[in-house]
Each structure stands twice: as structure tokens, then as C-alpha cells.
Amino acid sequence: MSDPEGEPVIRTVAMPADTNPAGDIFGGWLMAQMDLAAGTIAARHAHGRCATIAVEGMEFRRPVKVGDEVSLYGRLLGTGRTSMKIAVEAFRRERSAEVRELVTKAVFVYVALDEHGTPRAIAGPR
To answer: Which of 13, 19, 33, 126 is least surrounded by Cβ atoms within 10 Å, i.e. has the fewest?
Structure first.
């Protein structure tokens, strides 16, 4: 069991509607949850609207099963003038167990946007 890096952002339960034809949780569902977690960190840091522009290095290490608790942890790795890199790790835990395992991790790149959808400079704290 590895310890997560970053802050807890989302915890959810994988449901039957989220499965692929093999009966495991669809990788796209997991990636969407990770994107939501990264987006939460990006919006809070940029104090406004942001958009995903890239995902770096995603590798699915273990399957997620129906009923598993999925916990997403994220941390801001760095910022540019308009962009941010955010690391997200996804862990699964059987609902009746205590052991969690890392199932995937990736770095999401976000850009801060103004009201017209144009990249904007990331402002300081509000």
C-alpha cells in the first residue's frame, strides 16, 4: 500500500453503470473523476474558470471493481503565467476492507480562462 501524495479531493463509489464490457470500471469514468479532481484544484488556485488542455502519463495499473470506494488525491505541481500542472492519484479500496491500492496517476495541465474563454493570467489569492 502506498500513501497518497496531496490533498483528498473526491471520494466516490464505482457503480454498475460505470462498467466496461469486461465488467470492470471503464477507464474513461476513472479519468473523468480524476479530471474533476484536478479541475477543483485548478479553479481554486486560479480563482475562476479553467480548462483541461493535456493529460500526461496516465497508466492504468489495476482494475477498479463495482462497489469499490475510489479516492482521488491531488496536488499543484507548478504554475506558469496562464497554466497549471496538477498531479492526481486514484486509489481503490474494497468497501469491506481497509487496504487501499493505487490504480492510476497522471498529471493534468489546465489553463485559466477569462469570461470569453481566452487564456488569462493566474491572479494571486483573493
So the answer is: 126
